[in-house]
Amino acid sequence: MRVEIWSDVACPWCYIGKARFEQGLEAFAHKDDVEVVFRSFELDPSLPKGTVSDVIPMLAKKYGMSLEQAHQAEARVAANAHDTGLDYILGAHDVGNTFDMHRLIHFAAEQGRQKELVGILFANHFADERSLFDDTRLLELAVEAGLDKDEAAAVLADETRYADAVRADEREAAMLGATGVPFFVLDRKFGVSGGQPAEVFTQALEEAWAARTPALKVVGEAPEGAVCGPDGCEIP
Amino acid sequence: MRVEIWSDVACPWCYIGKARFEQGLEAFAHKDDVEVVFRSFELDPSLPKGTVSDVIPMLAKKYGMSLEQAHQAEARVAANAHDTGLDYILGAHDVGNTFDMHRLIHFAAEQGRQKELVGILFANHFADERSLFDDTRLLELAVEAGLDKDEAAAVLADETRYADAVRADEREAAMLGATGVPFFVLDRKFGVSGGQPAEVFTQALEEAWAARTPALKVVGEAPEGAVCGPDGCEIP
Lengths: 236, 236
Known about the structure:
Chains A, B: Residues 3-205 form the DSBA-like thioredoxin domain. By secondary structure, chain A is of the alpha+beta class.
């Protein structure tokens, strides 16, 4: 079974939702048969690269709140993170363009290190005061995730690499009806939107599991002898 | 879009079918949006490791044919391979237990080298007289596919590694109704069985593409504020 998770490192509910999904998965009887793939979704693709703001002033400005109100809003997110068992330093993260992180996550997938990199990026964004909007820092974390430093640096330096893969994920999210993240898709048949409680993820996994023997629509007809089976290949 | 291909290196129609699928994919307008994953299916899991037979005597014995008839059957497979543009040395390959190759293919997937390894194994099994049922040779080919030699050797040496992944693929094949290989599954909605002509694969890709915006069944309801969207995260 396959679960695709559209998310953005900049999204606190993605950080929380990913942890709740993992808790829900842990309680699922067939967890060893579940493959998890991370997909790209930029919360704000219009942010120019290099423009970084602290989260609380950004929230205040964006929603016309006082700094105190923005701080309270952040505190509610932090409380949800803490309740989920996650580290979260209130107000410590910044906000910027995440396209390069998404490209790097696609490179990591190709190297079999996607899960590691996504986990490290989320944890560092929300529970470490150092900014991720910095190629040197990003590269350190890529190495921590098991990626080759030179290869990861080459990916970061060339904006065209994995750019199509990021865009393709975003087009797919739109086609699947996602308008926000986190967005979880199970076997392309069931969807869960948002950082739901762990039990909802377990339930979704169980529903998808029960529905997982689809009747495939057969295309074409095998010419005689074009298949090999347990008793050997047909002799045409 | 995602295509899963259940196959076995020991299966000549898998070698031919893979090439025809690739030709069909080449003619498909959205080929860049297609992800291909190889899945395990052992033609004969009962063969003990270390027992290897030449193909023509094996065919003769299995089907109660003369060696001449077995040679003719092999010749028909070879002719199909040649017509598909593939190298194929008539009667040169041997037959044995492929479990270790499947485990190695799963390791390669984790390293982002699955496509390379599968292509190299098929080409060498059917168009090179050296046997693949030999850890030294298998390791050479793993390195040729871009895998680390020591890591690949460690996988081959430990029969438990990726064994569950191979078994899980085989259970899924059974659940999807596959009794022989190659077996192609598009987005878990369309199936193609056998080494069909390239046009059948193009047609299947087109049908799957047209059907690729599924209505997801929504599980759970997002609590207010558990989603981040293009305008930022909801403030609960």
